[in-house]
Amino acid sequence: MDWTDEDPMAERRVEDGGEGPVRPGVRECPFPKLHPSQLNRDDVFFMSLAYNQAIEAWREDEVPVGAVVVYEGQVVASAHNQVLGSGDATAHAEMIAITQASRAIGDWRLNGATLYVTKEPCPMCSGAAIMARLGRLVYAFQDPRMGCLGGATNLNALPDAWHHVEVCSGVLEDECRSLVQAFFSMKRRENK
Ligand code: ZN
């Protein structure tokens, strides 16, 4: 199978025409999307796709957090934060991506899947990753305030839990943190 048929980001890249003009009514993001080499489909590659999703969130005026899920080497889910647009506090990138991945795989158990997310998951999303029996989770930067996979606390350390997720952090850490910090500085300037 040609993976480009399965990769939701591939279509989006064509749509965007690379770094094409921003659509009307869409907020411009000062950070360009990443174009990682497709020859090296490692953690940095997949986190770059999550980063590009975070830029999509910025363009919709949402806190720029993005996520992708990879299963058997294919991207099966690709989502960004949509809390504002959907008026739903549960519409975090990870929650949407977990739902998409379960549909794509045809199983609520995601043991064989890896979720890449640009920020350490909150209590809700860390819990969802464990409840979904997610195999592996890679996040970019730690959230000392709300992160629940090591930042503020660690739900993965519940001693009697049925499942523990393999966690890896620090992939594209500076890039993903700068995006969120710049977004909040912009918001602070606007609200002055
Ligand atoms: Zn969350």
Write up this protein.
With 192 residues, the protein is of the alpha/beta class. The chain has six helices and five strands. It has helices at 8-16, 43-59, 83-86, 93-105, 123-131, 173-190; strands at 66-71, 74-80, 113-119, 136-141, 166-169. Strands 2-1-3-4-5 form a five-stranded mixed beta sheet. A hairpin with a 2-residue loop joins strand 1 and strand 2 (74-80). Helix 2 (43-59) packs parallel to helix 6. The longest helix is centred in the last third of the chain and has 18 residues, at 173-190. The model is unreliable at 1-18 (pLDDT under 50). Bound molecules: zinc ion. Residues 92, 94, 121-122, 124-125 line the site of zinc ion.
Note the main attributes of this structure.
6 helices; binds zinc ion; alpha/beta; 5 strands; 5-stranded mixed β-sheet; 36% helix
